[in-house]
Amino acid sequence: MLLALSVTLLGCIKTFDGYDDDAKIVSSNTAVFSSHVSNDILGKLTDKSSKFNGVQTIKSVTVKEDGEYTFKMTLKISAGRFKLVLVDDAQNVFLITDKDIDGDNGITVNAKAGTYQIRMVGEDAKYELTYLYI
């Protein structure tokens, strides 16, 4: 009985309908995962899921002065839609990436001084992410 219920629930994961809606990305922090594994060890986050829908805050960061900042990460998107965004104090949403990233190069963004939330947004996404905190 328990096994049948688990299989049924996994089959009913609802697609997130706010992938392209900044207002929903800002206001939501609800995520539904299937087969999710996340580890945060000594400043290195590894996170993967076979199906992810919704918005999940990874980390809050404070930028002390305006400038370019490089995020050292590896991202592999295997299915669905997945992106990483920054949300600032004024509730503006800035795309970090929605494409695979090679960990050696990372990705560089321009940011003004302030506090940001790094969020992942997914719609039926299968992904693997490794992120080194800056």
For this entry, give a set of tags.
134 residues; mainly beta; Jelly Rolls; 6-stranded antiparallel beta sheet; 2 helices; 12% helix; 61% strand; disordered N terminus
Lay out the secondary structure.
Elements: H1 2-11, H2 22-27, E1 31-41, E2 44-63, E3 67-88, E4 93-97, E5 107-111, E6 114-132
Antiparallel strand pairs: 1-2, 2-6, 3-4, 3-5, 3-6
Your description of this structure?
The structure is a single chain. The chain has 134 residues and is mainly beta. The chain has a single domain, classed as Sandwich (Jelly Rolls), CATH 2.60.120. Helices cover 12% and strands 61% of the residues. The protein has 2 helices and 6 strands. Strands 1, 2, 3, 4, 5 and 6 form a 6-stranded antiparallel β-sheet that branches. The model is unreliable at 1-12 (pLDDT under 50).
In short:
It is built from two helices and six strands; from the N terminus they run ααββββββ. It is mainly β and 134 residues long.
Largest sheet: 6 strands, antiparallel
Class of secondary structure makeup: mainly beta
User: What's the overall geometry?
Assistant: globular
Low-confidence stretches: 1-12
Tell me the number of strands. 6
Give the percentage of residues in beta strands: over 45%
Number of helices: 2
Which topology does CATH recognise?
Jelly Rolls
Determine and state the CATH class. Mainly Beta
Mean pLDDT score, rounded?
Answer: 83
Instruction: Report the order of strands and helices.
Output: HHEEEEEE
Q: What Rg do the Cα atoms give?
A: 15 Å
| CATH arch. level architecture | Sandwich
Distance between the termini: 46 Å
